[in-house]
Amino acid sequence: MPAEHLVDAGYVDTQWLTESKEKRDIRVIGPVRQDIHWQARTKSGFDLSQFQIDWEHQKVTCPAGQTTKNWYPLKKYTGQDWIRVRFNRSQCDPCPLRAACTKAKHERSLLFRSRAQHEALQATRQQQITPEWKKEYNRRAGIEGAISQGTRAFSLRQARYLGQAKTHLQNILTAAAINVIRIIAWLDEIPHAKTRTSHFGRLAPTPG
User: Fold this and answer.
1) Count of domains observed in the chain
2) Which of 64, 96, 113 finishes a domain?
């Protein structure tokens, strides 16, 4: 198996990030979804990353220093390792920082994954904004180009024969054909094609 697997955003979730490393020793490299809550989007509110989670004692402390032990594992009901934490109204109502924490009329509640998944998510969110991570992930463009060339020019997604063995042989021959085409293009100094623009996109006015 490969030591690394570069994937697009549609294939990345916290469960896969942790299980791939733990069970198969494969490092998944791909962008995770950013926090979409208004606290994170506005940069002026208290998002989940600003709460201190004490995993051993199952309690959470908010940026204002209030601590709650209302800790509810949800795996029994959802089948996945989710945890819900809820503060009390007696803590939230008089809080001077409430406007930066919640717009709801009731108290603040949080929903997050189990420890391993939560920490993997937070770490990946921090890594994927660094120049080093972006440079490493740029290799995904070559993968997308190979998939696009194989499917558009060689009908890679359509099996011409019946049976796994013949389909596998078709994939090998397709890969060989792509290599031959690329060698010829390199020898003839044919430049790489530019990213295609859709018919709808061509209708947009050109900037400037």
Assistant:
1) 2
2) 113
Backbone angles phi, psi at 200, to 5 degrees: -65, -40
When pLDDT is cut at 50, 70 and 90, the band that residue 77 belongs to is low
In a domain, 43, yes or no: yes
**Alpha-carbon gap, residue 24 to 42, rounded angstroms:** 38
For 157-186, letters b (16+ CB in 10 Å) and e give eeeeeeeeeeeeebeeebeeebeeeeeeee
Q: How many CA within 13 A on the CB side of residue 107?
A: 16
The reply to whether 150 and 107 lie within a common domain is no
Instruction: Tell me the pLDDT tens digit for each residue of 97-135.
Output: 999 999 988 899 999 999 999 999 999 999 999 999 999
Q: Which amino acid appears at position 42 of this protein?
A: T
Domain membership flag for residue 27: no
Using the Cα atoms of residue 143, residue 145, residue 149 and residue 155 in order, give the sign of their dihedral. Answer: positive
Give the range of the structural domain holding residue 182, as residue numbers without chain letter: 140-187
